[in-house]
Amino acid sequence: MEEENVPVAAVPAEENGVEEATERLDALQTDADDGKDNGKRKKLPEQNNPPSIPVAELFPSGEFPEGEIQQYKNDNLWRVTSEEKRELERLQKPIYNSVRKYIREILKPGMLMTDLCETLENMVRKLISENGLQAGIAFPTGCSLNWVAAHWTPNTGDKTVLQYDDVMKLDFGTHIDGLIVDCAFTVAFNPMFDPLLEASREATNADVRLCDVGAAIQEVMESYEVEINGKTFQVKSIRNLNGHSIGPYQIHAEKSVPIVKGGEQTKMEEGEFFAIETLGSTGKGYVREDLECSIYMKIFDVGHVPLRLPRAKQLLATINKNFSTLAFCRRYLDWLGETKYLMALKNLCDAGIVQPCPPLCDVKGSYVSQFEHTILLRPTCREVISRGDDY
């Protein structure tokens, strides 16, 4: 295990990194705006900048805009004309565009990772009209850097700073009544990482039958190469990470969606939500647990477990009240006013009540990119709920 507790930048920032990064993100946003479908969609209510109007106020009728609609193919075409199937569609759709667009605008080298996470999380709390376990953040903001693929968020007091040559995976989610939407994208200021980001973005967008998604993702992903500081790497799908089904108050439900060929042939059924995520790496394409843990989650189907320590019982009551089986992090416990809880938290983990979710890392010095969308298998089509005009 590495001695350091947090991931650090692999290469020092360039002196002009801030200006270059700002211009680069402005250009990306301009490209995204130019790519809109020029009024073909229904005009949406305007959000403030920075976003501050709760989604429910923007759409007081409760009719939220659809995500990207993808028709079923081949033997599923009958669904499009089925009156019975159409009548079954009653959907609720959170909005991700405002958050992603604003975060891209403020991201720049030199930003403290803790500030980045808290800015995003505070905005989500406001836009989703946070209300205990009925609505709010679905899991801590992941902002894993470079060879850290997933599950890293800063603990209180962490001084990690975003650098010009970092590759950051920004992973966030919201829920309403436990219905979770999971979304991730990758940010890199240095253009030499563009092919790496493009590989995972295009792999996420692979339009195939769901049962073939693993092979298709791997084929697209590994068709890319990236040159980093004069050395060429083939992009590899991380073979021991998967997409996953999403259940009420359960971010990782029972079914997995492989991102390499030959994986489990998941049967996806009508009405189910899935997170389709792709992670491409310049390393071994295999992750292991490493670094200091910051994210935890109460085990979904855990029964009653007797506890001896009063402090552990108290902490469990806090977890049950505020998170239930949704993931949380140490920053959230600090925010709730919990102190001196590490021993109690360890006790809950040792007792099999809470599961630690440590960072997942490829080899040190490699780079990992990720893109992720949540899809819903509707009766007549599939809907990419988290699709926006940026990706």
Automatic annotation (TrEMBL):
<protein>
    <submittedName>
        <fullName>Uncharacterized protein</fullName>
    </submittedName>
</protein>
